[in-house]
Amino acid sequence: MRSIWNGAINFGLVNIPIKIYSASEDGKLNLDMLDSKDHARIRYKRVNENTGEEVEWKDIVKGYKKDDNYVVLEDEDFEAANMKKSSSLEIEAFIEEKEVSELLFKKPYFLEPQKEGGKSYNLLKDALKKTKKLGLATFVMRQKENLSLIGVYKDVLVLHVIRFSDEIRNPEDLSIPDTKVSKKEVDMALALIEQYTAKFEFDTYKNVYNDQLLDIIEKKAGGKLSKTKKIESKATPAKDLMAQLKASLEKRKKAS
């Protein structure tokens, strides 16, 4: 793995030099975009809006439009916006994990101690494990401020980048019907949930879609692909809800 950010965790007056590594990877197949006419690959070009000519990466800068002109920003301008947050993760508070909605989580990163930071790294790790709390920190990476939580995963400090409150849309815009549900129906649903309750075994869940898609690709390449029937999903009618819950319970009992 290659580190994507070097800096330090500030834990009170304790300074822990660390490196950040991406802890996840995209599981999608690499598919090329093609012209439907001749299957030639589609290429994207960076084109000057005025001249129509292609521009090389080395000649591209970033700018902010102010009135009718652009203010061009250099790398040092981004760092100067908050020099401290560009080089350090400042733990501002410790919170309970249950206080954070899963809706806020965006991406995980592994943290590795740099030279001479091993003892202070293990100190923070052990303290977080014992208290079962998360460190709330902010930092700047890739010219963007990030709100984050520092916790422990498999004996390694892990940083979760989470969303700021203004990044979450208001669910009040959704149309949710105010349909009444009976106590019997709720009790039946609770019984069904209990029947399906199991210990979470992370390794038993695999990404099988890629294998299935590769199978389609192989069959299509060999001219053996047959059309599959579409599966239609229909809502359970309100009058049938209790019967379907009962049937689900019976099916689960037989399966177990």
Question: How is this structure best summarized?
Answer:
This protein has 256 residues and is of the alpha+beta class. 25% of the residues lie in helices and 27% in strands.
Report the CATH topology name of the domain at 5-25 and 79-163.
Ku70, Chain: A, Domain 2
Briefly note the structural class of the backbone.
alpha+beta
The tally of beta strands, per DSSP, is 9
Q: Radius of gyration, Cα only, in angstroms?
A: 26 Å
**Count of helices?**
5
The first-level CATH class of the domain at 5-25 and 79-163 is given as Mainly Beta
Q: Averaging pLDDT over every residue, what do you get?
A: 84
Query: Largest sheet, if any?
Result: 7 strands, mixed, barrel
Stretches with pLDDT under 50, minimum 5 residues: none
Which range does the strand content fall in? 25-35%
What coarse outline follows from CA principal-axis ratios? extended
Main-sheet strand order equals 1-2-6-9-8-7-5
